[in-house]
Design goal:
Keywords: Cell inner membrane, Cell membrane, Membrane, Transmembrane, Transmembrane helix, Transport
Oligomer: single chain
Subcellular location: Cell inner membrane
Organism: Succinivibrio dextrinosolvens DSM 3072
Low-confidence stretches: none
Order of helices and strands: HHHHEEHHEEHHHHHHH
Strand content: under 5%
Pfam families: BPD_transp_2
Structural class: mainly alpha
Helix content: over 70%
CATH class: Mainly Alpha
Number of domains: 1
Mean pLDDT: 92
Number of helices: 13
CATH architecture: Orthogonal Bundle
Number of strands: 4
CATH topology: ABC transporter involved in vitamin B12 uptake, BtuC
GO molecular function: transmembrane transporter activity
Amino acid sequence: MNKNDVIMTILKGRTLIVLTLLVIFFSCASESFFTSQSLLLIAKHVALYGILGIGMTYVLVTGGIDLSVGSVVGLSGMIAGLLINHGFTMFGYTFYFSIPVIVLIAIFIGVIVGLINGIIITKFAVAPFIATLGMMYVARGAANLTSNGATFPNLVGKEALGNTGFEIFGRDIAGFPVAVMILIIIAIIAAVILRKTPFGWHILAIGGNERAAKLSGVHVDNDKILVYMFSGACAAIVGIIATSQLVASHPMTGNTWEMNAIAAAVLGGTSLMGGVGTIVGTVIGAFIIGVISDGMVMCGVSEFWQMIIKGLVIVLAVIIDQYQRSLQARMALQARNENK
């Protein structure tokens, strides 16, 4: 094994290596880090970043980006809070829905936001960055409009109205967070679709070479729209979980979480250029973000320093990704020359 092979092996396993080093570092830096209570808290945060990151991975794989997911988190949570506390009023009558229906409505809102993003990007040829940046503000404004910027507190519902049980999504079952269970289910489904189905192969092809994919018969626009709808659904699910954990909904919930989603995906090996990405890598990347965030809090690091460090982590991850792609290209060229 030559030098390049060793470097490539390290680069491919960099996510696990970094996660291991971070766990060791914070375990030494803070006595409270490696306790059951702290690990449970980290797991709950990782579940949120992981689900968001999975949706973002699908978008990035196509060569796009979705900056609206953080706002969709807040909007879906506010919709759930509004329906639980105040119901839905029409023609002078107020209707209260069961929790499963409320969850479906909140997810539907996320899907609609994703649908709008996808249509703007594909049918109107607007750059994903611009389209989703605009939708980020629209969704955040809509979240604030639901309550005029106020919080919907104490989302426990009423037995008489049949809308109790919302807090289940933020609880633990047999000591295991429900949020993590949801992450595992979504991760398995997303991984199978990405690697074992024609749809997954198509979106990988779109990110690799969109023109070639179109000439091969791939319905590029339709697949892109579905990808953004999936990202919106993932964001809505995160909004439901986060709101359930707090037993209250606030319009600014999820603010800047799109950065955590992007960071988790990129740290997990998803390329910002498209065509490359794995769900397992994104979940590990989410663990890195969760460990960094909670570890710094336990060590008393300022919130402002946390923002700087997260930003540097994203930049460094992109630099390493570019280096890996360049090294792979050089190794492939060298192999072809040796075979001649």
